[in-house]
Amino acid sequence: MKYVDEYRDAAVAQRLVKEIERLSGGQPMQIMEVCGGHTHTIYKHGIEDLLPSNIELVHGPGCPVCVLPMGRIDDAIAIAKTDGVIFTTFGDMMRVPGSQGSLLDAKAEGADVRFVYSPLDALKIARENPDREVVFFAIGFETTAPSTAVTLLRAQADGIKNFSVFCNHVMIIPAMKAILDSPDLRLHGFIGPGHVSMVIGMRPYNFVAADYGKPVVIAGFEPLDIIQSAYQIVVQLSEGRAEVENQYSRVVRPEGNTRALQVMARTMELRPFFEWRGLGFITHSALKLRREYAAWDAELRYEAPGLRVADPKACQCGEVLKGVIKPWECRVFGTACTPETPIGTCMVSPEGACAAYFNYGRYSMASERAEMPEIDLSSIDIKLEDIGK
Amino acid sequence: MDNRLNDNISEVIDKIERVRQHRRNKFYLRDQHITLSHGSGGKATHNLIEGIFAPAFSNPLLDTMDDAAIFPINGTGQRLAFTTDTFVVNPLFFPGGDIGKLAVHGTVNDLAVSGAEPLYLSSSFILEEGFPIEDLRRIVTSMAEAAAGAGVTIVTGDTKVVERGKADGLFINTAGVGIMRMNWPMGQLQARPGDKILISGTLGDHGIAVMLAREALDIETNTVSDTAPLNSLVASLIAAVGEGIHCLKDPTRGGLATSLNEIAIASEVGIALDERLIPVHSDVRGACEILGLDALTIANEGKLLAVVAPETAKTTLETMRAHPLGRDAALIGEVRAEPPAMVFLRTELGGTRVLDMLVGDPLPRIC
Asked: Residue B88's domain spans which residues?
């Protein structure tokens, strides 16, 4: 496939891996990929298995689904169950459990929950259903916040009153700072989020390099992007440098997207603090609607419990997210907490670090570690190039 | 706070193994209500079947959990295969087919992959008040054509009408019987280490075609549903390969990933795939990239998955490719003794990952 295959060249990957192996010289290095999209690529393409065993990828807090605390999901469900409401959400929020079930369960119990691909689709539903109240469940980092902002501006311009936004947008920089400030930190560098950086640019990461001495490489989402970024981090470490580099320059501009930042600033402002699942309360880490947009603010328009639901005590997701412990080192891993009965967020989504370890478990942990033999085509007389592509 | 860590690796591995074993033996149904996931064909569907239907109806024929029930006809020495399927696809018409065509092919294929020659079908309709007769005529004509094309006869049926709003246009159920053409043990219990895995063509076409027809996504592709009757392809395989065929499946809901996991669990074998060998149409790949889907978990309606003895793999591939429905056939992997009940994928980048059953449902009402 054009524009994609060139980022998936196995030979190039092998060369980079060899270089990483040489430069790192067997030194254990923990590199955090902050973004959930990167985690997805890493699993989908089996990148952990390709990298030398001294390079450990730590899966960070960049999955907006995973970091939303249970209490906010309970609030969303309460709004969804309000009479006359059509509750719209991205598909991947549907299965995430609150304290009393998920939005999918609420839908099964009669709530009108619909999944949409963009907030503008939610606004369209509001236009088509003038006698109903349509609420959009806004989640995500700086990547999705601009489209929520544009939708709010549109709703305001067109005078659409039966539409509101349940705002849960969060920001990556405060979360990274919280991780860097944790006393048990053991990370050596960061693979920076590509799409977030497309909006915020490179400058906000400077403190990571300047104040904490850790390299940041902003990366794209193809497998070679990730491997190359890991390589750039290893190069920096081997040369004793800590800088912010942009591997994803085909998309990310150093100054970011100023238009997107402007529309966000027009419609949203910082919350004093916000709770992150697994990480606790982080100051100035989330956005809410500005007072001028109160008419479209679901938090002001609907009754929701607004209760904080504590993460279960035994759960050590916070330590896993910070890279302090490996998933299988958690007390409840594999016993009380499994993909079928998750306790913590890392076990909820199949891409969560714990769920991945659970499924891949004994192969990545055991020393005999999945050296999967080549699929043996020799017993039948077929050449590779005759098969498939 | 108790900060005791699981620091003994072999203990952890044992623990995971116990839980895995436990999960395999016992399915948990914790839900209070039916959710759309229960219709996905993936894990939730399995939990529902194992939690509700299997214990209530349990009998030796059902308990094999194959695509069709197979039983002897008294005194004749012959065996019949019997199956049923219901169709709720939305929209009713999509590129490459419609609900009627799907309803015929779905049941024909369940019989075919069980090793039976499909003979007779029933068809039952649940119609919503107000449904256009013209649409019904189109669908029924399409069913008649599909039946003729597959060489089966629709011999009985039923019609019910419900009030407006109580059904989404129309739903169709078909059931079918066929006569068994194979007399050796075949099915998802029969995969053996060393066996080769083949697929008759590109994956994900049906699911993506329906999804793009349904959602106004403005993604332009030439993707059409692959809905097709597999009985003649299966017949030529039986003739050419014979007892070398250990298992046939049509990877519908949940896609290739789910079908292979079912085989791996049932036969207690490991399955190794090579992503580079798996045929996926470039339009489907593109749509999957944009939508964040995996073609290996997306439904197909006219693809045959074959697990065959290694010495017959070449004949199987040649036979598939000689058939109009198998032109893009490929050898995609093999069966291993270890690790039991798991499917591995060697990625095109050269890494390795576990290919799990579909969890949740990215695309409801696809068939």
From this structure: 65-180
